């Protein structure tokens, strides 16, 4: 298991959807390493509450209202970061939604032939379009970092290879809107990493595991601390670390 010993003093990290779950635990982990963490959330009060929670543990962070679907929030985040820090070292596109499963039981029912256009668009808006637009908006600030890191929260359910293999444990999990949005996000990772291959910026997709969060449900087998580890690994990669990959912990996953 990777032990995090990096000193991130002076590094600025923005995490979307970080008021709870994997995002909040990732904020906790990066703050422990010395990074100045910005907790992004749709609701400023919830973001501030998360900051207070970390402060009780002796950790520093600040809250910033970012509804990933609101382009105005993207622009305001850019203006804020540029004025206060002049750069962004780490962007973790953590916010995401899953609408395919039955909310009460987290039961998965394959509704590929009946899922509505509205549900597909809602899922893609949050899981695909929002991280792309936010990343594009903030990229000029990431370029000013001496070691920019972009981490896209994907899922093993976005692996076309694993979804197509009847022997895969992920094969029965046919949540079409979610899976397709994560596969598309993986494509963004590949393309952006290729564009930035001659820069110090590294771009990777990650699978956090089946994590015990509101989205993951009570039957998930990974706790939140372990679920945050892959995000932290990819956010703190050394100069010779990978880019344009898909990982769980330090293990490559098939596209």
Automatic annotation (TrEMBL):
<protein>
    <submittedName>
        <fullName>Short-chain dehydrogenase</fullName>
    </submittedName>
</protein>
<keyword id="KW-0560">Oxidoreductase</keyword>
<dbReference type="Pfam" id="PF00106">
    <property type="entry name" value="adh_short"/>
</dbReference>
<dbReference type="InterPro" id="IPR020904">
    <property type="entry name" value="Sc_DH/Rdtase_CS"/>
</dbReference>
<comment type="similarity">
    <text>Belongs to the short-chain dehydrogenases/reductases (SDR) family.</text>
</comment>
<dbReference type="InterPro" id="IPR045313">
    <property type="entry name" value="CBR1-like"/>
</dbReference>
<dbReference type="InterPro" id="IPR036291">
    <property type="entry name" value="NAD(P)-bd_dom_sf"/>
</dbReference>
<dbReference type="InterPro" id="IPR002347">
    <property type="entry name" value="SDR_fam"/>
</dbReference>
<dbReference type="GO" id="GO:0016616">
    <property type="term" value="F:oxidoreductase activity, acting on the CH-OH group of donors, NAD or NADP as acceptor"/>
</dbReference>
<dbReference type="GO" id="GO:0050664">
    <property type="term" value="F:oxidoreductase activity, acting on NAD(P)H, oxygen as acceptor"/>
</dbReference>
<keyword id="KW-0521">NADP</keyword>
């Amino acid at each position: 298991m990777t032990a995090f010993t990096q000193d991130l003093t002076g590094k600025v990290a923005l995490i979307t959807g970080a008021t709870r779950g994997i995002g909040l635990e990732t904020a906790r982990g990066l703050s422990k390493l010395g990074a100045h963490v910005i907790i992004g959330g749709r609701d400023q009060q919830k973001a501030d509450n998360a900051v207070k929670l970390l402060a009780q543990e002796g950790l520093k962070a600040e809250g910033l209202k970012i509804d990933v679907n609101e382009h105005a929030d993207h622009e305001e985040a850019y203006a804020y970061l540029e004025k206060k820090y002049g750069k962004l070292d780490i962007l973790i596109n953590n916010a995401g939604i899953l609408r395919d499963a039955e909310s009460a039981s987290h039961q998965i029912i394959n509704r590929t032939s009946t899922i509505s256009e509205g549900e597909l668009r809602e899922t893609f808006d949050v899981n695909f379009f929002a991280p792309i637009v936010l990343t594009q908006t903030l990229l000029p600030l990431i370029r000013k970092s001496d070691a920019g890191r972009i981490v896209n929260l994907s899922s093993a359910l976005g692996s076309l290879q694993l979804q197509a293999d009847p022997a895969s444990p992920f094969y029965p999990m046919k949540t079409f809107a979610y899976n397709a949005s994560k596969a598309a996000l993986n494509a963004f990772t590949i393309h952006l990493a290729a564009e930035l291959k001659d820069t110090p910026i590294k771009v990777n997709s990650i699978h956090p595991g089946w994590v015990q969060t509101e989205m993951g449900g009570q039957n998930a087998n990974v706790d939140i601390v372990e679920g945050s580890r892959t995000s932290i690994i990819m956010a703190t990669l050394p100069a010779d670390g990978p880019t344009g990959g898909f990982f769980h912990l330090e293990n490559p996953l098939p596209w």
